[in-house]
Amino acid sequence: MSYSIAEAAEHTGLSMDTLRYYERIGLIDPPARDSGGRRSYSEDDLGWLGFLSCLRMTGMPIRLMCEYARLRHFGAASAGSRKQILLEQRAAVRERIAELQMCLSTLDYKIDNYEMVERRVAELTPLAQEATA
């Protein structure tokens, strides 16, 4: 099955401008063209775009994504280099997750504290109302 640029954008969640940009900088190979000269993306293209989206979501810089994309053209001969890129990115992701967990713990602590304060205020409010009555 083949997909137009609009369909590929819809399937991947990337904009058409992003797809063109990725093609221009070499992140994706130029897709096939239909009889009218329009881009025609394959299932494999969509799979690669999905992987690129995953890499972006991990915070991988475009520069490193381009290096990974360049290396993939060397096939098995570049497997070690590509694996190393992914190992380093995985370590960075794990570090970021740990940082976010610490932030989440801080937020949880503050929320719990405010809930306790609200309960105390609610308990005192009827007493204050009785004292002024």
Radius of gyration based on Cα positions:
26 Å
User: Outline, from the CA principal axes?
Assistant: elongated
What percent strand? 5-15%
Low-pLDDT sequence parts: none
What does this structure look like?
With 133 residues, this protein is mainly alpha-helical. The chain is 73% helix and 6% strand. The chain has a domain at 1-73: Multidrug-efflux Transporter Regulator, Chain: A, Domain 2 (Orthogonal Bundle). It has 5 helices and 3 strands. The protein has a 3-stranded antiparallel beta sheet with strand order 1-3-2. The protein starts with a strand and ends with a helix.
How do the strands and helices of this protein lay out in sequence?
Blueprint: E1 2-3, H1 5-12, H2 16-24, E2 32-33, E3 39-42, H3 43-57, H4 62-72, H5 79-132
Antiparallel strand pairs: 1-3, 2-3
Helix pairs in contact: 4-5
Quick structural gist:
This protein is mostly helical. Helices cover 73% and strands 6% of the residues. 11% of the residues are buried.
Which short descriptors sum up this protein?
133 residues, mainly alpha, Multidrug-efflux Transporter Regulator, Chain: A, Domain 2, three-stranded antiparallel sheet, 5 helices
